[in-house]
Amino acid sequence: MNNSSDNQNGSSQDSESNAMGLNRTANSSSNAAKRGNVRQTERGGSGAASMGKEEIGKWLDKMVNCNLFNGSWVRDDQHQLPMYEPGSCPYIDEPFDCFRNGRRDNGYERYRWQPKACNIPRWNGKDMLQLLRGKRLVYVGDSLNRNMWESMICMLRDSAEDKSKVYEASGRVEFRTEDSYSFLFTDYNCSVEFFQSPFLVQPWEVPDANGTKKETLRLDLVERKGYYQEGSHIYDELNVFEAFRKAMTTWARWIDANVDPMKTLVLFRGYSASHFSGGRWNSGGQCDNETEPIEDERFLSLDEYLPMLEMVERVLKGMKSPVFYLNITRMSDFRKDAHPSIYRKQNLTDEEKKSPLRFQDCSHWCLPGVPDTWNEIVYMQLLMRQNQQKKWQQQLKTQPQSNP
Fold this sequence. Notes:
By secondary structure, the chain is α+β, with helices and mostly antiparallel strands. It has 8 helices and 13 strands. Strand 12 (264-269), helix 5 (302-317) and strand 13 form a beta-alpha-beta unit. Residues 1-52 are annotated as: Disordered.
């Protein structure tokens, strides 16, 4: 997912083919899964808006060293979950709108992520809008990033006092085409945008010996299918892992060369786990009977993703620009219960009506749902950045002034 925010003034169903995205915000964001009851608990985390400035600063300082992604999902029926009322947001595309598509087992909406060593802040939409005032928040990536982008739109819209002042810049209300979109929150002079870029690197066409064109992916260019291109060399075959490594390296170099870390906060969303049982998305894979998260970590499938995750971490650590790794793989791997499954559309085709259980989406997420938690972590990162910037400003003020 790509998320970029700087000063306003100045997809495939199969998630394995859309493994990663970019999240850039700025200064200006198993089938063998075991069923089991997840314990109930009171909502952890602190509401930043209810704390004093000094208390907030101390708490945020502690968060710097906390592993947010080592935790578990806990059932919470006592607090603000879901973060917006199901059916209340008009900007959720049909494939993610499980409530309108007839899903009535809503337990999946009642889980929050609880790190083992700390508490993440409760979502405060009004505070987030203030953090975004005069800025851009930009998501770039595949349909899973669009899933996350629509989540953020709905979370923020729910906190806007005048919802008539929240709208897509060109008036569009459907967001599944290969395009870019920008939601304006005019009371805050901010925008929340999405740019479709499934591969992050640039699609390309080259002529073959017969004069026809074939599609390639330029592994050496950032984007502004069966082949990969690096410079003038075209690979007829290339290991998917190696192609992804080359694409990641290209992306990292582009960020280092083009992004000012003093103005832009960059986040990279990790792999989002899918839960097809008995097949893939186009061959009878199912998840419609799942109503609770995985409880036992032994039933997670992290080993399947480990080589790619380690490669991503190596690339990110080798960058000059600081990038926050939104490492949601383990977090999402628990949530076999929260996919659209058969509730991905209202009107089925004739073929789908003959076998409705065959056509399921077990890679994207229902909204409200899991991507809301990813965005909570984006909110936390913006709080931490704001806290750090205040520290820098205080240090500048206390530095002795040199005589001319």
